[in-house]
């Protein structure tokens, strides 16, 4: 993360609703999100907000970590993140 953000809402792709949900699952600051990583944060959201958390949220979080729009996350990275998240969610069931 090149920039230093004070609030989750300051990061690209993270609006008020996603930021609120991240805080609800224990991710309170950009630093905590960086430490946790996109996959773990997404899996926490997916387990808590099952029906309203799409895979786009995973890519949006990764984009926030990279400080790029979610559509600019390289497809190879997106695919790897999706696979990692699927494996983690499968293991947690």
Strand content: under 5%
**Global mean pLDDT:** 95
Helix fraction bin: 55-70%
The number of helices is 5
String of helices and strands: HHHHH
How big is the Rg?
A: 12 Å
Text of the CATH class: Mainly Alpha
* Shape verdict: globular
Q: Main beta sheet, described?
A: none
The helix-and-strand class reads: mainly alpha
Give the low-pLDDT segments: none
* CATH topology type: DNA polymerase, domain 1
Number of domains: 1
Number of strands: 0
Q: How far is it from the N-terminal to the C-terminal residue, by CA?
A: 31 Å
CATH superfamily: 5' to 3' exonuclease, C-terminal subdomain
- CATH architecture name: Orthogonal Bundle
List the helices and strands and how they pair.
Blueprint: H1 16-24, H2 30-36, H3 38-48, H4 55-66, H5 75-92
Protein described:
The protein has 93 residues and is mainly α. It has a single domain, classed as 5' to 3' exonuclease, C-terminal subdomain (DNA polymerase, domain 1, Orthogonal Bundle). The chain has 5 helices and no strands. The protein is globular, with a radius of gyration of 12 Å. 32% of the residues are buried.
